[in-house]
Amino acid sequence: MYLNIYSVQVALLLWSITILSLRTHCLAEQEEEGFALCVTSRRLVQNLSNHNLSNVPLDLNNDTQYLDISHNPLVKLEAAPFQRIPQLCFLKVSHCGLRLIDPNLFVHIPKLKFLNISHNLLDYIPDLSLPLLKILDLASNQYDCYQLPATFETMANLTILSLGSENALEVDFNDFDSLSDSSLQHLILGGGVQWQRYDPGSLAKLKSLQKITLKVPFCENLDLFQNLLEDVNETQTTDLQLVELLPNLCNITGDPFSNLRTMPLVKNLTIVNTLINSSFMVLFLKNVLLSNVTMIQFVNITYSEDTPDGFLLPSLNHTVVMRSVIFEGVHHYQYRYPVIDINVDIFSKVDYLKFSGTGMNIVPCDIMSTLPSLETLDLSNNLLTDSGFWWSVCSYTSVFPKLRHLSLSKNRFSDLSFISKKTGQMKNLESLDLSFNSIRLDMPCFWPTHITELSLSNNNLGNNVFSFLSKYFQRIDLSKTGITALTQEDLLQFPMLTHLVLSSNSIKVIPTALSPTLLSLHLDQNAISSISQETLAGLPSLRTLKAGDNPFACSCDSYWFLNALNKSLLPDWPLDYTCSTPPSVAGLPMSEYKTSKISCEAWLQAAIAFPVMIVIVVALCSVFYACDGVWYTKMLWVWIRVKRRGKKQASLLSNAMFRYHSFISYSHCDSAWVESKLVPSLEGSGLSLCIHERDFVPGQWVVDNIINCIEASYKTLFVLSNHFVQSEWCNYELFFAQHRALDEQQDSLVFILLEPIPTKSLPKKFLKLRSLLMQQTYLEWPKDERKQQVFWANLRSMLQVADHRVLKDMALSLAESASLITDE
Ligand SMILES: *[C@@H]1O[C@H](CO)[C@@H](O)[C@H](O)[C@H]1NC(C)=O
Ligand SMILES: *[C@@H]1O[C@H](CO)[C@@H](O)[C@H](O)[C@H]1NC(C)=O
Ligand SMILES: *[C@@H]1O[C@H](CO)[C@@H](O)[C@H](O)[C@H]1NC(C)=O
Ligand SMILES: *[C@@H]1O[C@H](CO)[C@@H](O)[C@H](O)[C@H]1NC(C)=O
Ligand SMILES: *[C@@H]1O[C@H](CO)[C@@H](O)[C@H](O)[C@H]1NC(C)=O
Ligand SMILES: *[C@@H]1O[C@H](CO)[C@@H](O)[C@H](O)[C@H]1NC(C)=O
Ligand SMILES: *[C@@H]1O[C@H](CO)[C@@H](O)[C@H](O)[C@H]1NC(C)=O
Ligand SMILES: *[C@@H]1O[C@H](CO)[C@@H](O)[C@H](O)[C@H]1NC(C)=O
Ligand SMILES: *[C@@H]1O[C@H](CO)[C@@H](O)[C@H](O)[C@H]1NC(C)=O
Ligand SMILES: *[C@@H]1O[C@H](CO)[C@@H](O)[C@H](O)[C@H]1NC(C)=O
Ligand SMILES: *[C@@H]1O[C@H](CO)[C@@H](O)[C@H](O)[C@H]1NC(C)=O
Ligand SMILES: *[C@@H]1O[C@H](CO)[C@@H](O)[C@H](O)[C@H]1NC(C)=O
């Protein structure tokens, strides 16, 4: 079968001279690898890149693991600053104009695993003896040969080495001897200048090599290139990258790639930054198609048509093993449509085709219906639109019959409803990548059931995107789509969902009971402050949770997350987890935040607080009893009541005046105490007392005397002792019986207990006393002198009357209207 794909011309209609933003990912990835290799905490990273430093600072943290001092005017690297950082594992000193390195420097940093001193002015390859070093970049310096120092022998674990200098024009047979026993896997060699000499056999010594990147143009002397390929054939190399192999205006003679046909190991061949003429392309492809190369990759090439009939590849009578064809960045030398005439049989086995960064805006109909084995088509980074990809003039019965993965990332697709319908034509399509487009959500979508994976990342979609998706989806990527909230209902629509990416949105809360089927969830770079046990309980199948770079609250909210969650679930732990609030710990790596179980778990607090409280209560009680707390409490109670009533009565009493503050009633047995203590203490503070020995009118019946005194006094004070009860109280029982009016006025009665008198021991006949002592608070006379102070103070405040004028008339009238002074 021989097929002319002239319609390709149409596809190339807008293949203008595209300006590409090519990812120089290979090396950047290595730098990231260096980060992963070395850094255990972001705190130990020192990034001093671009700080206009002329010296390495001397005060670096002594546990620094990662130091980037690239882009500084350093000139010389001294040893002193490195003596202090023995833990250093990653060092980058590129673009520093470096000419000299202290030979003793590396002795101080034996743990170095990554060293990048590329893009400097070193005119020698430094002596390095770093047994742990894995990645070494010495490219773009000024040394004039590739002779590696003998000390390189110690670097048994070196896996990646980059060498290159504009001044090194020759490769000697012995240049790489010191690495012949190393485990070097990837060699990047060349300074972008043509070599004058290459001693055959030099590279063959690096037996362990698996990947070679050559940054050497071979234009004038393609013989060198032939020799070099023979040496590559002696190593384990499967991956060959040729950078700037053929510059512009190059005279190609012979068949430089013929050696490829007999190199069984090389499987991946990459051509980078090169001008390729159609005549050379035919020559090159004939060899490649006869070799064991399964992947051919063109990165940033300029295609020039120097044959009048365009690109013409005749039919082949052998089987082709080619599986993957990749074009990543194609410029056109001529501003016209290239003519491509190819037997599609050649591509009958190709299952991976990438056509990226080419400015393509229309996909030709023929391509859509041919390429029978194609499983993956990557058309990212072009200028395709909905109608450019699904071109309306095409009529075809089958579209990419075996296609399973389609990437339309970084194009101009917009109508999701249209796309969902059209993908139904690709009967085997499983995954579709529409990231970095301009997707709109206007109309309902009707997805074919065979599509199970969709990426809509980096489109502005919003929260209702979930209702435009298919319930058959198993993997959904919605990173950076402007989602602000996620609900349980959103995900209930996807019973088969296993992978969900929601990175770089503004989600604050993860709902509980999210999805029973989810295996992997990415929620990094959102606004989540904590991850709870309930959330994880709602994700019973989860195996991977990426949640770094969120504003985590380092408080009890994170206690479970920090202490109980199995961290093997988190691929980005601990590097990407940093405390954000409270401000006191902002910036602290979460793995270094410590919170105790006690301060965070309520039941534990209770469990601990309970015994502690019991101990405290017991201690307080002991102190209370030891210091006669009961007595003081009683006194305090009396005092409070006095004050309370005092306030109530103040207005009533403002008009009522008495001759005495108090009438004192006592037994003669207690007269010694009354005369020596009570009277001096009370009268000493200005209170006037009625004492029967002194103030009773002689000859009168004692009860009358008592009544007179009581009526003329604001209060009546009983000094109770056993003797008083036995001998005196009977008079009062009588008195209370006679004066029912005063009966209620119990407030005016004050009892002092000189000795304990249990209520039960009182004679049954003294009903009044019993009930009074039951209801009434009484003052106990303390033996302790300090307590006596309190006793007197309390007693005095009970007897105090605001006004000292004594008016018997008023007192009498008060006595008659005694109900006024009752409690309520
Ligand atoms: C070393 O630094 C240069 C300049 O930044 C960079 O281009 C290169 O990729 C780095 N080398 C490695 C191995 O990462
Ligand atoms: C260090 O800082 C430079 C710019 O100052 C930046 O480009 C680079 O990514 C930073 N490196 C790391 C590891 O953060
Ligand atoms: C860098 O530092 C030098 C002095 O060390 C100063 O003269 C120069 O202006 C600085 N350059 C910048 C961009 O700050
Ligand atoms: C760093 O210095 C501190 C004291 O400043 C010391 O306690 C610590 O052990 C040192 N760490 C290392 C790795 O030398
Ligand atoms: C090389 O690395 C391996 C692990 O990757 C380690 O076991 C071995 O000790 C290293 N060799 C040297 C010389 O450090
Ligand atoms: C590569 O090595 C194989 C043997 O392993 C040999 O047959 C073949 O000729 C070699 N090819 C070249 C180009 O040296
Ligand atoms: C070839 O390159 C592809 C894609 O970069 C990679 O997956 C594959 O492992 C490589 N194969 C070899 C043998 O290097
Ligand atoms: C490609 O073609 C141009 C003009 O057609 C010619 O000048 C140049 O030397 C050719 N280059 C190669 C690498 O074939
Ligand atoms: C290419 O080679 C031919 C003869 O081998 C010579 O005449 C011509 O000048 C060369 N062209 C260039 C650009 O070197
Ligand atoms: C391709 O590889 C196979 C096995 O690896 C080998 O037998 C065969 O000779 C190789 N073909 C070429 C053209 O090197
Ligand atoms: C692409 O290749 C051209 C040379 O062919 C080079 O000048 C340019 O810098 C390259 N672009 C990138 C991004 O590497
Ligand atoms: C394959 O075709 C080439 C010419 O393209 C021819 O020289 C060769 O003999 C053919 N081989 C077979 C096996 O037909």
From TrEMBL:
The keyword Glycoprotein is annotated on this UniProt entry: yes
Gene Ontology MF annotations: transmembrane signaling receptor activity
Transmembrane segments: 602-627
Entry keyword set: Disulfide bond, Glycoprotein, Immunity, Inflammatory response, Innate immunity, Leucine-rich repeat, Membrane, NAD, Receptor, Repeat, Signal, Transmembrane, Transmembrane helix
PROSITE patterns (alphabetical): LRR (PS51450), TIR (PS50104)
Primary localization: membrane
Cysteine pairs bridged by disulfides in the record: 365-394
Coiled-coil region(s): none
GO cellular component: plasma membrane
Signal peptide: 1-28
Location in or out of the cell: Membrane
Location of the TIR domain: 658-799
Nucleotidyltransferase keyword on record: no
SUPFAM superfamilies: L domain-like, Toll/Interleukin receptor TIR domain
InterPro entries for this protein: Cys-rich_flank_reg_C, Leu-rich_rpt, Leu-rich_rpt_4, Leu-rich_rpt_typical-subtyp, LRR_dom_sf, TIR_dom, Toll-like_receptor, Toll_tir_struct_dom_sf
Pfam families associated with the record: LRR_1, LRR_4, LRR_6, LRR_8, TIR
Family: Belongs to the Toll-like receptor family.
PANTHER family assigned to the protein according to its UniProt record, in alphabetical order: TOLL-LIKE RECEPTOR, TOLL-LIKE RECEPTOR 1
Protein name: Toll-like receptor 1
Taxonomy of the source species: Eukaryota, Metazoa, Chordata, Craniata, Vertebrata
Gene that this sequence comes from: TLR1_2
